[in-house]
User: Fold these one by one.
Assistant:
Number 1:
Amino acid sequence: MRSFLPLALLVVTLPAHADTVASVASPDGAIAVELDVNAEGRLAYRVSHRGQPLIGDSRLGFILRNGRQLLRGLQLEKQVSRSHDGTWELPWGERRFVREHYNELRASFVERDHDRRRFDVVLRVFDDGLGLRYEFPKQAAMDEVQIQEELTEFAIARPATAWWIPAYEWNREEYLYARTPLAEVGVAQTPITLRTADGVHVSLHEAALVDYAGMNLAKGEDNHLRASLTPGSPAKVVRHTPFNTPWRTIQIADRAGGLVESSLILNLNEPNKLGDVSWFKPHKYVGIWWSLHLDTQSWATGPKHGATTAETKRYIDFAAQHGFRGVLVEGWNVGWDGDWFANGWDFDFSKPTADYDLEALAAYGASKGVHLIGHHETGCAASHYERQMDAAFTLFERLGVDAVKTGYVCDAGQIERQDTAGGPVVREWHEGQWNSNHHLRVVEAAARHHIAINAHEPIKDTGLRRTYPNWIAREGARGQEFNAWGNPPNPPEHEANLVFTRLLAGPMDYTPGVLSLKGRGGQPIQSTLAKQLAQYVVLYSPIQMAADLPEHYEQHLEAFQFIKDVPADWQDTRVLNGEVGDFVTIARKDRNSEDWYLGAVSDEQARTLDVKLDFLDPGRRYLAQIYRDGDAADWKTQPFAFVRQSREVTRENILALRLAPGGGQAIRFVPMAGPAKR
Amino acid sequence: MRSFLPLALLVVTLPAHADTVASVASPDGAIAVELDVNAEGRLAYRVSHRGQPLIGDSRLGFILRNGRQLLRGLQLEKQVSRSHDGTWELPWGERRFVREHYNELRASFVERDHDRRRFDVVLRVFDDGLGLRYEFPKQAAMDEVQIQEELTEFAIARPATAWWIPAYEWNREEYLYARTPLAEVGVAQTPITLRTADGVHVSLHEAALVDYAGMNLAKGEDNHLRASLTPGSPAKVVRHTPFNTPWRTIQIADRAGGLVESSLILNLNEPNKLGDVSWFKPHKYVGIWWSLHLDTQSWATGPKHGATTAETKRYIDFAAQHGFRGVLVEGWNVGWDGDWFANGWDFDFSKPTADYDLEALAAYGASKGVHLIGHHETGCAASHYERQMDAAFTLFERLGVDAVKTGYVCDAGQIERQDTAGGPVVREWHEGQWNSNHHLRVVEAAARHHIAINAHEPIKDTGLRRTYPNWIAREGARGQEFNAWGNPPNPPEHEANLVFTRLLAGPMDYTPGVLSLKGRGGQPIQSTLAKQLAQYVVLYSPIQMAADLPEHYEQHLEAFQFIKDVPADWQDTRVLNGEVGDFVTIARKDRNSEDWYLGAVSDEQARTLDVKLDFLDPGRRYLAQIYRDGDAADWKTQPFAFVRQSREVTRENILALRLAPGGGQAIRFVPMAGPAKR
């Protein structure tokens, strides 16, 4: 029976005393962070917001597999502070310009004995939150570092409600969001969204996940959330010094919408490494997809095969007629006919099926200004895909296919890695270190061919689109396909959950706009018609699908007009109102015109939201083209009740948005000639 | 955007329908277990108690690193039921005879496609709970199995309170128990104790942890507790078929005391593999230990060195004078003088320090019937210890040292493994697969030398003492030493927590009986004098220390008499009352006489407990030698207020036990000549 400490240290453990050794605050002073070293030489940080504790004493440190634990006997060697204020431009995005304004503290810690190993804790504090990361300098006592666990904590100091999805389950990220007291969080994926009892909104996530294991958060005692890195072997993370961890991020906002307007995650990523990326232009697309989930067509060849030359021509014609740049075709290549789910190694990423004339279709599309969108489902045979991807991208580049949707359909922890051809196949987690590198290898290879990547069943988004702007979108949540066959389908609150949780990480290819409002076997989608339109504004992505079948759009041409008009690239974004999981209204200004667009979605409740139009440009009159729920609309009883109307407005006006149960509203604001009337 | 299932399976996922394919009940019918297979071919079990759901649908399955997930597409191939009713004898323990009465169901599942991999789910249902384990038969499609996660769930179907300590923290097991709503459990070590709102007591743990990773429990959504195996590499568990997992155990009792009286964990272990183990006899010991924690002596050599020849002789004399068989000496061997905590590889397990004459002391002890108790602190250099242990045990065996306390003092996850001399040192978790095998290698090597092992900072106890009866005790919780230097020290409720949590796993070497009631620098121990005596009955171990200094016992000879009298081996055990974390009264009958002993402990509350003496043998009169709190006793103000009194009693009597705040009571019942008066 012995303490966990040598006697020499025991003596000093009696007092719980800790000294604050360094501190840093946000430019506006509202957020203050302090670093402590206690008598054992253990590190902790704490965060206050407007002078009140928000994150209590939270430990920092590591358990290593190839070395002693790195968490005690540490002392501050030096600290350096600096500030930065600048503005950078997004090649595409929710806004054009991003202000990057922070105060930085670098605190260098060294072990006071043993091998005097060292690392820095770097804090960047912005007005909208902070990032914390560990930086390991090159040092003789630590070359290869095998991290068994990172002990970073987030000790939430106020009672709070949490919105979260579980980690380490058999599925990946495709869960409905749970809304529970913080105390009832189990092991959660990030981002996790919290709202304190006194109304402060917090999102915990990470930025710049590169060559490291994704961080999940496990609730320990009290309300301590602790990092739980995604497993890998021989350790969760294996790196050589020098290296940095990803940024552990804490976004803080008074309004729920403040989290959505925050650029913290992007600001904590490295600048564009790809140079000129003007070869990617945000756009909308249609494609052979919804029919596959309806099971009226199949990925596999045969009588139901969707990806035929004739069917694809039909989609190209439809796209050309209605102004969509892209046509996605799934099931176009060889490998779908077996049990691809069990064996992704059968996929051939350069070989079309016999009934699909890729070359001719690419040429046919080009003649009409339509680009095919490539599809690379891997079935999680990631190493198999890596061996073929360069040839596959070369083929696509030659054919003008400049956007590719990748897929990693398999259960959690089943990403198949094979380091050398013929070596053993081992499984990795979707959020593990190996897969974080795999995704970047794919994105960089695609960039060399001027191809953009839209990854499904992906590793989570941590803002890497700033550094790799051809990584345009991801899935990584429950998408529209669950409305085709999900049990249950997505509930009315789903969009209002996604906006304030998954979407905080980055763009999501949700594939909105199913105006037929029915899934497989006629299962109703829990949405009104207008809400499907609002999704295009509310759920940001630089590549947006019109997911429904052409024949369905022909039946709803009036509503379809909004989908045709709405852009996929923005100058600016404002969240006008919203509560996590309940409702949200977002206004965005087109990047390529003076038009503004508004989208509002509700949950299962009917609501009337009074919206000030003061986001509109001063001195201008706008024609507001309104797509709203009909007066009797209700997702359960009258989902198709829908009204399109127009009226003239200026920034002085207030609009009362009436949202039906499961409803929404979409508005396009078109500037009118001449000045606003007084 | 794609489902997690191939289309072929998608079709059948729409209904959530599941079929019950097998079921089994306890001999008394109170506990019923059902196995389900749903439309996806996923397995689940559920448990009802007295007809009401206790554990809801809980998934079963595995995520593998070197193969596809093993959790879907399964079908029942066959099921076999059998029953067993027998009684076996414990060579030492809380009771002499154990009834083993259960109904068993073996359900064999096979994948309906792919490689048709197979495993059995085996359920053994007793009247006091159940065990569930997976058995993997030898099969061509699965030879080496690398388990990345076991997905076993425990979906607690009723609101409940939980008593638990966290897993994956920097410390090992030495935490105060948290008492929270089940919903607020984070990631917990096992055993974890639950009490449902309607008063059912449940302990979740495991039995027969052999060549597998220890199971922790992480709370997922709702009240689902999910297995979280302790990490290792290349996977959490690496085995070859055929193999079995440990038993996942669910103890169920109406009274808190029912959990303590349960032999479920022992019944789910294999019978004694060591044959005649009469060479180990439970006993009590004193030793050079408390002074080290008081920091008045040191493990290291020098002026404060405790383990000197002269000082050890003083303890041998004291042991001989008062009838203690053993004398533990810590700091006797070479290796303590450096920073042993950082480098356990300096320990020499056969080389005494210069001021410690091991041979002479062993002979001196033998001349007085006293045996030295060996001490092997490894500092977690487990492989280093394995290389020396056979020589060390040979030495001890020759000197009559037949019990050894081992130690693994280091932070969590820092067990040092080196597969071949000179190879890299890698760290493993205390509860990981590698360490589960290390401990058994030590225990089996010790058995060959007729030596018993008392492991500190150990892997958790899972009942292996049935199979290896020389694995006599462990620490694995916050022990008495925290009263010397802990911040905070152990609170008054600590024993009432331990009895219903840690002690459910097996014997604990708590090292009770510090009658001086003071720690380092006079820090008060939060206990009355009588409570220190009660610990000997309440906290079961076959090896019990009188932990205080000889000179302190000389000052409390009246109370010390109970420590001299109380045995360490029992015929029978009864829990007379108790509530988790509040109080408990336990009666035990001496294995080697007709005496009964009673111990009662309270938390910070004063209580009067009316106790029926109907556990006493009928027709007998007993002299009750009572050691109780004085009327004004209170751990804060009058911890030494203490009364010893005697009275005659029979099983017809009811005693009112008055326990002070932080108090307790200890009673010895000695049969008197002649029949009980009527």
Note: Confidence is low (pLDDT under 50) at residues 1-15 of chain A.
Number 2:
Amino acid sequence: MKKQVYFFGSNMTEGKKDMKDILGGKGANLAEMANLGIPVPPGFTISTESCAEYYDLGKKIPEHVIAEIEDNLVRLEKAMNAGLGNAEKPLLLSVRSGAAASMPGMMDTILNLGLNDAVVAGLIKKTGNERFAWDSYRRFIQMFGDVVLGVEHHDFEQILGNRKNTKGVKFDTELDAKDLNAVVDEYKKLVKKVTKKDFPTDVKEQLMLAIEAVFSSWNNDRAIHYRRLNDIKGLKGTAVNIQAMVFGNMGETSGTGVCFSRDPSTGENVFYGEFLMNAQGEDVVAGIRTPKPISELKKTMPKVYDELVSYYKKLEQHYKDMQDMEFTIQEGKLYMLQTRNGKRTAQAAVQMAIDMVKEKLIDEKTAVTRVPADSLDQLLHKQLDPIAKKKHKVLGKGLPASPGAAVGRIAFSNDSAIKMKEAGDTVVLVRNDTSPEDLMGMNAAQGILTSKGGMTSHAAVVARGMGRCCVSGCGEAKVDEKEKTLELGGVKLKEGDYITLDGTAGLVYEGQVPTINPELSGSFGELMKFADKFRVLNIRTNADTPKDAMQAIKFGAEGIGLCRTEHMFFEGERIKAVREMILANDVDGRKVALAKIKPFQKQDFIELFKIMDGKPVTIRLLDPPLHEFLPKEEKDIIELAKDMKVPLIALKQKAEKLHEVNPMLGHRGCRLGITFPEITEMQAEAIFEAAKEVAAKGIKVKPEIMIPLVGKVLELKNQKDIVLSVAKRVLGDKPKVEYMIGTMIEIPRAALTADIIAQEAEFFSFGTNDLTQMTLGFSRDDVGSFVPDYLRRGIIEKDPFQVLDRNGVGQLIKMAVEKGRATRPNIKLGICGEHGGDPSSIEFCHMVGLNYVSCSPFRVPIARLAAAQAAIKYAHGCELAGTKTTNGATNAATTLANDKNDSKKEDKSSAKTEVKTKVVVASSKKPKKK
Amino acid sequence: MKKQVYFFGSNMTEGKKDMKDILGGKGANLAEMANLGIPVPPGFTISTESCAEYYDLGKKIPEHVIAEIEDNLVRLEKAMNAGLGNAEKPLLLSVRSGAAASMPGMMDTILNLGLNDAVVAGLIKKTGNERFAWDSYRRFIQMFGDVVLGVEHHDFEQILGNRKNTKGVKFDTELDAKDLNAVVDEYKKLVKKVTKKDFPTDVKEQLMLAIEAVFSSWNNDRAIHYRRLNDIKGLKGTAVNIQAMVFGNMGETSGTGVCFSRDPSTGENVFYGEFLMNAQGEDVVAGIRTPKPISELKKTMPKVYDELVSYYKKLEQHYKDMQDMEFTIQEGKLYMLQTRNGKRTAQAAVQMAIDMVKEKLIDEKTAVTRVPADSLDQLLHKQLDPIAKKKHKVLGKGLPASPGAAVGRIAFSNDSAIKMKEAGDTVVLVRNDTSPEDLMGMNAAQGILTSKGGMTSHAAVVARGMGRCCVSGCGEAKVDEKEKTLELGGVKLKEGDYITLDGTAGLVYEGQVPTINPELSGSFGELMKFADKFRVLNIRTNADTPKDAMQAIKFGAEGIGLCRTEHMFFEGERIKAVREMILANDVDGRKVALAKIKPFQKQDFIELFKIMDGKPVTIRLLDPPLHEFLPKEEKDIIELAKDMKVPLIALKQKAEKLHEVNPMLGHRGCRLGITFPEITEMQAEAIFEAAKEVAAKGIKVKPEIMIPLVGKVLELKNQKDIVLSVAKRVLGDKPKVEYMIGTMIEIPRAALTADIIAQEAEFFSFGTNDLTQMTLGFSRDDVGSFVPDYLRRGIIEKDPFQVLDRNGVGQLIKMAVEKGRATRPNIKLGICGEHGGDPSSIEFCHMVGLNYVSCSPFRVPIARLAAAQAAIKYAHGCELAGTKTTNGATNAATTLANDKNDSKKEDKSSAKTEVKTKVVVASSKKPKKK
């Protein structure tokens, strides 16, 4: 039998930090700390493999594991010179989960295990601290009762609350030993009532039940949801850490705390943390009492503080990353209970990465991988407008628990938050405190406000992880979750009212405060420079307006990958001309209307070309069905009829004629340009006339004209011929404008016949929004009726409109890339669907060898970082098989790990098929920055 | 230079019948007849390659071809002892088109070429027949003027008409030489007026202009449309046949005719044809004079008749197929002008094929290939109900020109016919006579009625080719095409009124006569037996009702490939329960409603299982979105609200909630079964309870349960689990019912991940309707706005919903077949989209190795024949590389000719990529008929 249980502490440590896979993060790090000579209470870790085996056996702990547990328990009892269930020398245990990836609060923990009436008596005798003993006992019954026996946490709390009420006190600490003894009695009765059995007094039984409960918690809904949300895949299960208890609640020389080697909120290189004296760990995290800043420990217990400082420094140096640590002081002696790489805000991640490079702790490549690309979103959206915010009333101040700004309607419950979000509102979740049950509500909210809890409270930690803005511990706030009201700063707000949070300052504002967009400066700018050194993909932006284009340039965009010309059709006077065109009965009528639109279009292009100053600009010809330009409401139709001086009936008939059953698959894209060639002609004229004018001023212009919705090469050919003839007419025989004509690949047939289409197309741009709709048969507008259900049931793991479906849509893209390059080796390949801004999808684009991704201006920095991370991740594969092909491409056969996982997930029985993807790096000659 | 002109006749023949490709059908057959010793007027053929070269040079006859033409003209003059333009010994020429595929009447012909004022005088002198000479001259000017010079045919006819009116006569033959001389003068003036030039008198110029005109006519709209309609592809162009004229209009011992070696309408083995004395060929075909049956020639000219009989027998024996011949008798001497395989009705094709096998003229395999599978449609639809038709008034009688029945609204013009058809009406086109301009109108009509013309008139020939019912030469009918009225049998009908044609009997009925469906008997039945010997594919039917299922069994269906259960939801009481289910607010409410539907569903299945008696029955679970079951109209909604006793507002809200932007891509298929598992459960219960009941009676039952709209294997898994658990519950542990669970492949993603899906699916059925919609991005309901335009512009060649798009959709099918078999070698593969009844698509299904196709009951015989033809066509490839694989499949690599053409068509520049398809024959062990 393979070893399944590993001892740690007391110079008998068997594990180490790189055994995370089988010991879990917590277990591996406990072993590692012990190896480093840092004091940890001894204990042992049951491996993640046992958890897998537990499930394989139909939820049964394997016999050989039980035997190993018993052996290790004996070792532990020896090391502690105490015995589990031994009233003379009582040994109490903690039983904690710990998977290879951090899942804070998602799985179960049991503390103070090993107590029964006999042991509690012994404990009193041994410690002389009656209150401590009874407090430990009541905590144990409560936790064990809730986690293992399924008695409602709430019911225990009610007993405790009643006791406090009877006594007229506010805090648990104000209850004395007698009170707690009474509470224990009531707890036992409650357990008996609910479970029809006495609370188990056999301490071995307690231990085994606790271990099973931890294993079971691996697959509770919360944990499954958390893994899905955080893209945690391929783990065996959770390990279980059984450790001798040390007590922070043994009096005023005892205490417990959480600390970070740097500030997890700002990234500043300062020692950061909180502690509570005479408390157990759960009190700090639960946010019931507000803890004190770590600096105060220096005054309280200077020796302990110095020791703690030396440990944190040692640990950070050892792990080369910011550490998040838990410690307990038992009667003046410091124990480290946990260390792990700390969660941090995006701002902190950036700051630490850059600082650590400067401190030579890590290299630039590592720095680039330290910041989750998606997390930059926190830095790229929303700060309160510094001028405008002055005009808004500050309602109150709390802790700046997670930076950024949130403007939204108040929700007091998970359900409300989710519903409001689904209704299209932005939401601020307001609570006294949060617990793991609130995860989905917090995810739905833009920001979280709590009246209780500190900087390391559940709300604060989770909000930072999720990139949600959070103000915690706002004590002035009176939150009535039942009545759904918030009283703060003399104002009483109800559900649905607007408030604004400033998570960076910890302030709460009344109403909706305008927000502004941030810039790339300082450490953020430096990180971007590092990223640019490593990435291979070019990053373009989707921009239809000069404003967007300018913002994107500031964020480092290297061109426009998608300019949707129809957006230019909606503004002001133009829409009138567009409608005139739609209502025209013949070509001549349409041409008259189009002539009115042309000057506007031309001006739009002139501005874009100037801003992009020589960078390529991909312009997509008119795409949406014409009915989108007509009003929908009866009154608007009547008004339009008057306005256009056409009979109402004629207008209605036209609208009726244009109506489509499935507009998504209807008369749009190049189909419009083919039936109404005059539209294509007008747009081509506007583009080339603008290009000519701008070029004449000595500014370089690179239009790339993109024909949408092509499924057959002859469609492209038809439109290309029109564009070419206009180009010849406008630019003359020797054009000074370099232009290209290409197509979107957004219809499955286009991908399937990409070799043929590439005969006419100089570039492909993957329109993954529509490609996803058609490949999956999902109407983006209609999936609300079943996709949430699919996500809930795990039929799909991610919304395919957010994260590219690699096995389906990705397979078509890969096929099109290969076929396109086979016909036209130097074909330019990009993506302009919304996936162009999603890190996982960008990684895929890198792997299949696209030349660029294009995304919204605010996602350009994310894309730059994600592209660099993909390049770093797959650099090894490239070096492995790296041979230059004729067009300078580097090929490497690397199994695409994610795809493998996807198909394994799809294939629950016997995965015979593995989707493999070659990593093809399109062009190692990245254009130099201009 | 490659030889481009080939002489024939006078023992100097250079061509032969298998040179069709370069000589065209007419040219090759003229050469062949000459080789067989049958008298043909000598002449020469300019090759189809010259036509291609003509277009390559920008519509210019190549110099080297002109030189060859001149050489051959000299040979011809020698052979005829006459000279072109020689007034002493005048040689007149016919100039005729003739492509490799028959395109009757689509391209141009010029007769009597070589006439001018001097030659006509010489002709009079030589023949002593003044009237004949002037008649030839006026015919020549008229034809040349129309075809070469672009003078309206109508304007010539008016001059001729005026002359007849002035003289008070009815027929051209009543005009004498003087009249015709005057007509010639007027014709010349007309030409001068229109063309601003004199009619060309240089005979060489006449010849070259005529040749160019024929080349040009290859690409006139009519010809292009005809080729598209008849799927004629890959030809180089038309050949031009220049032949010495012989004259049927030289008096009462001269004549001309058309004859067939068997009856082209019924297939009967009798000599069949028509002739006119003192006429030229065009008079017979144009239908202006009604010709006499060929049998009368025996009386008129017995020697010529016997000669003709010997020739037709020789030719049929030689070509081993029914011949369609043209002949001319010049002053008692018989000349054969043309022979070709004759067009025929489907009924005739079947009859001839079977007869010829009995006569040992051809073998069974050849017989199977002799009947175009699609043409069986004529035999499989519509005959007049023999009882019901007695109650309808017969308005008149004409010639039974093309069999079958047509019931429709009268249209008097092409435009009306097309418009009416587009409006959803069935149409009968009523004309005095038809010409090639009427092609599209005839295509739009179900039947054609003409007042003029014989059995070989344009209307009759084309109608038979198209499979349209036709009554021609109905002399009593007064058709006023301008006033749009038809007077017949004492009734005056206008456009839009209903009439009924019986093309088999040549009768015209008033109003709408009910029709009945035919049976497989006699020769048809024998042909089906031959087909079954050769085909590899099984043929199933799409049937939702016992009636359909029974009809399909009669037609030879080997199972049900698609039973759409939702069709069962619409009838009578059921729809109420369905609506109750939709309106229910929770699972329990839905279950109550579903319990009401179940007995109906179960009864449906019991009946189907009994009828199919051991044949497999594929049942698709509920597919359409729920809103399809709710009424659309305001008044129906109000009524339903009353009926269901729900508030109107609630009903409207529900309908609003169910509304979808793109229902095609919305909440339907297995997505319904996943969000409402109780629906799947009810359907599975109905199926298994029915199966159990029928099996208990000793009848074998083979249900195949099909989960629709699967895109991911987990969707299938989810639904399969439900079905399996119901099966276990209903059938017990040892079920006596063999059942399978599989899926439709109708979403591109399903095809792309078919290897993974096959882990759960026991069968795939390709739902090519939806697969086409999604792969091409074409909403079937909306393509009307651009697909007609696409067809017109040649961007697509065929409606992809009728004929499977091999390069796009086909590629996905091929991929899914290969991936599916890779995972599950014995997976059962079929198709249930409407393509399952289309011969070209069936051929594709054979090639990619499906096990069966499923089509509507009335297309089952077509599918049987098409499957046999595909097997015969690709048998060679199979023998070539034929190796048995483990599952009994035969593999052969054969380039898929059509796909090659498609991609060539798509690839106008440089076809580097050829789509190749292996012919994979799924199972050579075809199940024995039960």
Note: The longest helix of chain A spans residues 587-612.
